[in-house]
Structure prediction request, 297 residues.
Amino acid sequence: MVERSAPPASAPAARRPRNPHRAESWQPTALRRVRVRAVDEVAPGLVRVTLVGDELGRFATPGTTTPTGPVGSPELVPAVCSPFFDDVVVFCLPDPATGEVTLPVPTPGGGLVNPPGGAALVREYTVRTVRDGALVVDLVRHAEGAGVRWLETVRPGDELTVVSPRVSRELPAVERMLAVGDATALPALARLIEERPPTLALDVLAAVPDPAALPRSVLPAVPLADSDRVRVRMVTAAPGSAVETIEALAVAAVPCGFAWVAGEAGMVAAVRRHLLDRGQEPDRVQFTGYWRLGGSL
Ligand SMILES: Cc1cc2nc3c(=O)[nH]c(=O)nc-3n(C[C@H](O)[C@H](O)[C@H](O)COP(=O)(O)OP(=O)(O)OC[C@H]3O[C@@H](n4cnc5c(N)ncnc54)[C@H](O)[C@@H]3O)c2cc1C
Prediction:
């Protein structure tokens, strides 16, 4: 059974920035063969996977495209890079029934499509770090799903094909930003805290089942010196629940320059509605359903 197949290609000419306040830059779409170096349970239900391999660096491949069209073959693909906090790497997962991996195909438009007669099973994860030749992601262990089934069996030394971040979105040029997310958004929230510009007033709210169990490597603390500009709060909430988050948002400064919301689709929709009701302009909220409780997106 194929649960989520490769996204359709999009024509570069029709591509507009997803949000007018976040300029986009594109990298070639390249499949990279990597090796799992470590699988660590960093918190209950949260697994850190460290990937390594020569193809995270610059390498030659015949199957590369850029948003402006196909490039010569073979082409040197640049080393993987992840300049912004919510950059995404795509995992090409095995069919849980057969164990076979069907790879998506890069298109001339810089996208990914299914191969003829096949369907690739892909999942997207935020790049937590790319450092010293290793790419790190933090995966939430959902109740079920292809990602979870892969996590159950994956061991150091296993191989995996990933598609490195294709598009990166710059931070909006605002003075004040609100960022809200569930456990699947923790890597992005963590990067936002770590990589924020010094002048940004940042209000972060993470809704997770067990805040006390999260180590600093998952959600960093803010240095005391920055506490007047950066606030990081966690609320206890079951996956998919928006009530606790919306209650906690009562003390947030809304409207603000930009709001970023990601996580379970129902929660994200409810938080977005709440922010709009409080006067946040629609194009100043970027909301992304990362997954859906009780079914696929
Ligand atoms: C831009 C982006 C960035 C992301 N970053 C991260 C990240 O850094 N870390 C992370 O953990 N996730 C991240 N995600 C979310 C991740 O891609 C999803 O959680 C993904 O769906 C996980 O795949 P899965 O196979 O484990 O679970 P899925 O198959 O998607 O299932 C997840 C949940 O959906 C429900 N469900 C699915 N199928 C069924 C069914 N047949 N019947 C009943 N219920 C069902 C269940 O509640 C299940 O627990 C990101 C998503 C996006 C779009």
Remarks:
- Confidence is low (pLDDT under 50) at residues 5-14.
- The chain has four helices and 20 strands.
- Residues 3, 88, 123-126, 137-140, 142-148, 184, 187, 288, 290-296 surround flavin-adenine dinucleotide (CB under 6 Å).
- The longest strand covers residues 31-43.
